[in-house]
Structures are given as structure tokens and as C-alpha cells.
């Protein structure tokens, strides 16, 4: 059988397709694989090929980045708690009530996701300085301000996930509870919240990751002594690239990966991210 | 049934709304106000109302160049993202493998790892005496990609691609597979069935994903800083640099607004590129 022209273009197309697939996979995963590889070098810097391999760099993470990791964790945990405390009621409010301006309010509450982090960070810093001048309360460079800023970017995710977990929620159980004499607070506590449980757990994990990984807002709000992991890794990379920083990067990937695996058990990630 | 805001809803939504007002609306309003102030080397910021910061941007070629580079990088990355994202997303949407959810997770994972961490790998590859350079050294040549536009484009592409794959995948999932089967049943080759049946249906979604990638590229910070080096300038790093190094808050505020306005303008313009009948 001779090779016709359509066969040939089909074959060429298939090879091109495979090439693009390979390039795409490499573009996403190659840097992560390389980082993992470098983190095990038994060298002070990139010497390729290395003389040997070691896991010792992982033990040295705490020495250089320990304080920053601790700050990042503190901010993330408090931001998660606050964003759940404010985001869950907002999610319930938006899904339950139909009022004029509901669409606009929902857009407004999710808007922190669409403003570039660099603008948000600069704006919050400038407001903090302005308030300091007016009131004398120190805000800039404090953990409080970082937490509040992180609340702004984690809360929309909580609202979004709560809204998603309530879209197919049957109001009849709530109505039944209310007609049996449960107060509105009781209905939320005993009926609505238990129904939202997977969504709430997912929201908490999501909020944690979003806070932990933030860089742009942190850039403006960190101060000497209060530096987040993302900022200190960026600063470190400005001077050297070595197996230690690769090990920190891998550790971060592992933490986020574990959180995502956990999250995947509660919500279908593909659905949530749309 | 639409009514005025009931008291219960106000109680539920009030606290969250006040956070967005206090931490986003008020700061952005003040930022805009400050962008109209004047910078002074000794007094830093002098209160006035002037458009000088904006006119400075549009009259000095240096800043034009920065904006041009930013748009160029973001647009190139968006186009490359479509080219590399389409095949991956299509495969992911149409696979019947039992590993599908694992594959999805692998695409989602990088989305939540900060761009700094994901740039480390490219630095290892591109750095002087890095891996590419060392391998090239064995053949007697040198490869120095570090601190080039190419490096920034590759790094940003790598950061944006998972977003692209994920959004395109959901676009493809929304297109009924029976349409392709029908086209092939009528004698179309798989590639013809794709380009004539699936592609027109997917086009609005592809456009939206490309715009998303463009926006991410316009606002990129870590990749241009780490892979572009100190002499490579893009808008987001410039905003921080003017703030941090020059303490010129009014100008950096103006830069932030110029960046947001340009992104908004270009993304709404690009909407007209999609033929009307395909618009979402």
C-alpha cells in the first residue's frame, strides 16, 4: 500500500502532536525534577555532575529558613481561622438570600482574586502608613497587618468553596428543623454547617496553601525579623543557587502536595478551580 | 423573589464585606490618590494633585520599553501556552485511563507551588556553570541563557501552563464526544474532525484561557526577577523597585495603575478578536 498524501500529513501531524505533548510535560515538570535532583547534591553549589549525593541539606533547612517558616506558618494558621470565621457566614448568606445587588456583592467579595498582588501589597502598605500617621499605632511590618492582608486573599476562596458546597443543598431539612422549633442559629449549627463539612475542610486547606505560597503581597509587608518563607527564598536566590535552597523548594512542594492530596478527598479539585 | 437586604443576610455578609472594603477598596482608593502626589527626594511625598507621574511614564522611553517588554513576554507566553496546553488538555479530557484523577492532580499541584520555588529548577538549568552550560561544555561550547528574555519566557510559560491545561481541559470536557464520533463516522480523519468540529466549539474557551495566561504574565514578579536578572525590567518588578529602592511611592502607585489599566484594556480589546458567533 502506497503512502498517500493524507496519510503523510496525518503522520506528520501525529509526530508534531507528540512533540508538543512532550514539550508541555517538560515545561511543567522538568524544573521540579531538577530541583529535587539538585537538593541531593553533595556539593556547595551546582557542580555537574556532582561528586556524590546526600540528604544532609534537608537537615540544614531549619538553620537558615526556620524563622521564616515559623512566621509563614503563624500567618497561615491565623489567616485560615479568620477567613473561615468570616467566609463561611458570607458563603451561607450569598447562597441563601436573594436580594437586590446580590450579584454585585458576590463579585465584590471575590474581587481580591482579580487584583494583581503587587498592587494589593503596595496599597495595603500605603494605607497602613497613612493610618499610622493618623493614629500612632504601628501597623507596617507587623504580623497583624500580614495576617489581615492574607485574610483578604484567602477569604474569597473560602466563600467560593462554601458557595460551591451549597449549590445542591436542599433547604427542606433546614425548613423542617425550623418548623420543629429550632432557632435560626441552631439551624445553621446543626443542619447547614454539617452539610457543608467537606467544603469547609477543603476551604481551610485551600486558604492555608494560598497564604503559605503568597509572595507579592508579602514583599511589601515584611520587615527585618518578620520575613515569610517565600520572601526569604526569593532573597536567598538573589545571591546564590545551591542545594540548600533546592531542598527548601522540595520541602515546600511536598507540603503543598500533601495538603492537596488531603484536599482531593473532600472536594473534586477540577470542579472547584473553574 | 428579590427583596431588600434582609437583616439576617446583612449579619452574615457584613463582616466579610468590611474586610474587602478595608483591605482592598480603601487601600486602592488611597493608592490612586497617592499616584497624583509629587515625589521629593528629601520629603519623599508632597501632597498635591498632578498627573506628572503618569505623564512621566508616557514621555520617557525607558518606561515605554518596560511596558513593551511586559506585553511582549505576556503575549508570547500566552500563545506558547495555547500551543503546548491544547494537546495536553485534549489528552487529559479524552483519556479513559484509570490514572486520570492522578494526572489531574499532577497538573493542579504546580498551581499551588509558588512561582519562586518553581523557578529554582530553571535557574539550575540556565545558570552559568549550570546544567545546560556544563553539558554544552562537554561539546566545547557554552550556553548562557541566564538573564535573557528567552529564560523569562520559558520560566513564565512553565508557571502559566498548568492553568492553561486545567481551563482548556474543562472546556474540552464540556464538548460532547459524540460530535467527534459523528464526524469520523461520516468519513472525517481525526485531525479534520478536531479542527472542523471541536475547535470552533472550543474557541471561546481557548480565548478565555489565553487571556488568563496573558493577565498572569503581565503581573509576573518572581520569574522576571530571578531569570531576567537586575537589568531586565518588567512592570511588576518595576513597581516594587520604585517603591523599595527609590522610595518613590507616588510613581510606583501610578505604575501599579498603569499596569492594571493596560491589562484591562488589552484583555477587553482581545475580546473583539474572537468572531462574534464564537463569543462566550
Description of the structure:
The complex is a heterodimer of chains A (274) and B (280). Chain A is mostly helical and 274 residues long. Chain A has a single domain, classed as MetI-like (MetI-like fold), CATH 1.10.3720. The mean pLDDT of chain A is 88. Chain A has twelve helices and no strands. Chain B is globular, with a radius of gyration of 23 Å. In chain B, a hairpin with a 3-residue loop joins strand 1 and strand 2. Helices cover 72% and strands 2% of the residues of chain B. The longest helix of chain B is centred in the first third of the chain and has 34 residues. At the A-B interface, helix 1, helix 3, helix 4, helix 5 and helix 6 of A face helix 1, helix 3, helix 4, helix 5 and helix 6 of B.
In short, what is this structure?
Chain A has about 270 residues and is an all-alpha fold. Chain A is about 75% helix and about 0% strand.
List keywords for this structure.
heterodimer, A: 274 residues, mainly alpha, MetI-like fold, 12 helices, globular, B: 280 residues, 2 strands
